[in-house]
Amino acid sequence: MLDTKRILVTGGSGFLGSFLCESLLDDGHDVLCVDNFQTGARENVRHLLDHPRFEMLRHDVTVPLWVEVDEIWNLACPASPVHYQTDPVQTVKTSVMGAINMLGLAKRTKSKIFQASTSEVYGDPRVHPQPEGYWGNVNPIGPRSCYDEGKRCAETLFFDYQRQCGVNIRMARIFNTYGPRMNPYDGRVVSNFIVQALKGEPITLYGEGQQTRSFCYVEDLIRGFRALMDAPDDTPMPINLGNPGEFTIRELAEIINELTGSQSRMVYRPLPQDDPTQRRPDITRAKELLGWEPKIALREGLIRTIEHFDEVLTRAAASATP
Ligand code: NAD
Ligand code: UDP
Ligand code: UDP
């Protein structure tokens, strides 16, 4: 018999959250999506609003939430540097107070709880690629700290609630993920470059474009989320989820130019402060403990993402035409 649960997804109308809600609904669960729409879009879950097992609640996770659920996925938090630096105090509150409230809820309802942590806990890493045992190299007082330190404090809270209160926790350290439904204007590199290439505008490389990132397609990541949540209770946490394929930002720009057939030229802009110089997940743990690894190569994922952005931009242009 199908084990159907009442599942809370915070940040459920964001990029990753909307795919997660779909995946959980597909498996027969009841989904309560909680979001304050700070960076998420109603558009991401519009197709789910009429679903009989889907509910949407506008709510800020910094405020306590009293609902009856069996499982919690805590994704609420702006994820792009442009967004999380717009209101850094709110970013810290969301990570820290949001974690406390969701952990309090998990404790009371005896729910298993998942935390969307991040590769940013490794900061500008001195160990490469990054295994889960690496403690990181994070500036505690810089412009990225609201996100990095907020997420690090949330990790601490999760482990303290586990040790002190017996809460059943799951934790993914997510590396850069991309795909359809990313906000086209959130300033992240994949969305920026695709929009710039499709519009024939210059592609903005920050610094020399020699810094590296590893890009995971959203479908692979959500499969990893589900495997991680379903893992046995004694599975060691956290677990890195990401695609180990590593590219310089310049290489990414060249691939996107080629795939879009764009003639966009590259322009150089200052490198933001504390921008990590390299990033690649060591996914040994995910492979061994979850049997998970990504399947979708960068070019294939980019082709799907470009198609999506092309539609979004075409629709926007059509609605702007009088
Ligand atoms: P997103 O901005 O699209 O989604 C975040 C969602 O959280 C949005 O819908 C936003 O409105 C909501 N939110 C923000 N503050 C809130 C609050 N106080 N109360 C309620 N809702 C709130 O970003 P995403 O890429 O979908 O990221 C989801 C999660 O995954 C975040 O926690 C992020 O830190 C983490 N993560 C994402 C990536 C990535 O590459 N996408 C990488 C590492 C970690
Ligand atoms: N909390 C919540 N929903 C619940 C239970 C708790 O939002 O169903 C909040 C609660 O208001 C508190 C936080 O979670 O701010 C932490 O709860 P906990 O029980 O750990 O701490 P306490 O209430 O004892 O401070
Ligand atoms: N970046 C860039 N041009 C852009 C946007 C980002 O060169 O228009 C760079 C940015 O400096 C960083 C990398 O791309 O080195 C990834 O940036 P993103 O904001 O997507 O994610 P994060 O820095 O959080 O990994």
UniProtKB/TrEMBL annotation:
Its cofactor is NAD(+). It is found in: Cytoplasm; Golgi apparatus, Golgi stack membrane. It comes from Roseivivax isoporae LMG 25204. Pfam families: GDP_Man_Dehyd. Its main location: cytoplasm. Residues 8-302 form the NAD(P)-binding domain. Keywords: Cytoplasm, Decarboxylase, Golgi apparatus, Lyase, Membrane, NAD, Signal-anchor, Transmembrane, Transmembrane helix. Belongs to the NAD(P)-dependent epimerase/dehydratase family. UDP-glucuronic acid decarboxylase subfamily. Its EC number is 4.1.1.35. GO terms for biological process: D-xylose metabolic process; UDP-D-xylose biosynthetic process. GO terms for cellular component: cytoplasm. This is UDP-glucuronate decarboxylase. One of its GO terms (molecular function) is UDP-glucuronate decarboxylase activity.
